[in-house]
Amino acid sequence: MELPLWRALTGYRILTLGYALALFFLNYREYAHPPGAALYMGALTLWMLLTWNRVTSPERCTKRFLVADLAVALGGILLTSVVDSAERIDGGAATLPSIWAGGAVLGCAIKGGWRWAIVGSTLVAAANLAERGGPARDTVHNVLLVWVSSVAIGYIVEVARASERTLARALQIEAATRERERLARDIHDGVLQVLAMVQRRGAALGGEAAELGRMAGEQEIALRTLVAGGLLPPQASPEQLADDAELLRSVGTAPRPPEGPCDVGALLAPHAGAAVSFAGPGTPVLLEAAAAAELAAAVGAALDNVRKHAGDGARAWILLEDEPDAVIVTVRDDGPGIAEGRLAAAEREGRMGVALSIRGRLRDLGGSAELLSVPGQGTEVELKVPRGSGVGK
Fold first, then answer.
1. pTM above the 0.85 mark?
2. What is the DSSP string of 115-180?
3. Which domain of life does the protein's organism represent (predicted)?
4. What average pLDDT does the segment 97-125 reach?
């Protein structure tokens, strides 16, 4: 955001130096002490040659430089009353640095905001009034113009910096949230289902296995609570969220699928079996590998829900459709359906199968997951992924 302002200030200083030199050469013989004026203009030109690039970036424009630059401008304004004639000063002739002095004030405004702008413009205003010997109308006009414009620019810079910081924090929070959701999906698809299976099998076997199943059930509940409550922890600072995102990226992440197109049908065909039917086009249905893998994982999560909630005798059908602008997969079962309000209750309990493993994946791909369920008539999940989508888009 600041770089264009610093470049503009560099151009302003160079152009206004040329203007000040042109005024000096045009009025050289009218000065009361031409050599003294020439000495200052030479020093000003040398100062510019040595420091022209100091205002090209905030790192180069230090506080010490701004103080020195402002001193050069103030010295030139006050020296004008010594080297110029009283008639020219009373007639409103420009000071030696002329409008170049405004560059020093603008540098303070861009570097330190409106407070620094007030200090710099007030010092320049005082020097101009001292040079004229009083508040002449044109001097007051110029002083107010520099003061108001520099303060306004300083305020705009502060607002822009605050907006930039807010945007950066929002992006950090979004990145951390997305990473937490991705890990929660992986946990749900793997660890939680293994713990649930151990709990069921342990209870069926009895004895020591039952105790192991009980412990697995307790860990499943604890982990579900952690997953549900850890998506966006309250009272966490943006810096903590950014650190969390960096940590999550560095540990426990699954390898990314290879780049390039991938046949979605080839990923979904292994689900077909005695209780699951698969139908799709006779030609490959291509998606970017990352998007295809996420879509296949969402289909797997939908089939897991069928196996867990629709009963042992339920059947499921997978339909793959290849549309010009999207790939659509429909998963339908003939189970008892989902009671109204059950999904919201499951999400509150930390059971994120639909919220994260299905809808979360499709949302990250820029797609959608529509669920239609009528009690007693089964459930249908339609997964739609637009062409050209990938993870994180």
1. no
2. HHHHHHHHHHHHHHHHHHTS--HHHHHHHHHHHHHHHHHHHHHHHHHHHHHHHHHHHHHHHHHHHH
3. Bacteria
4. 90
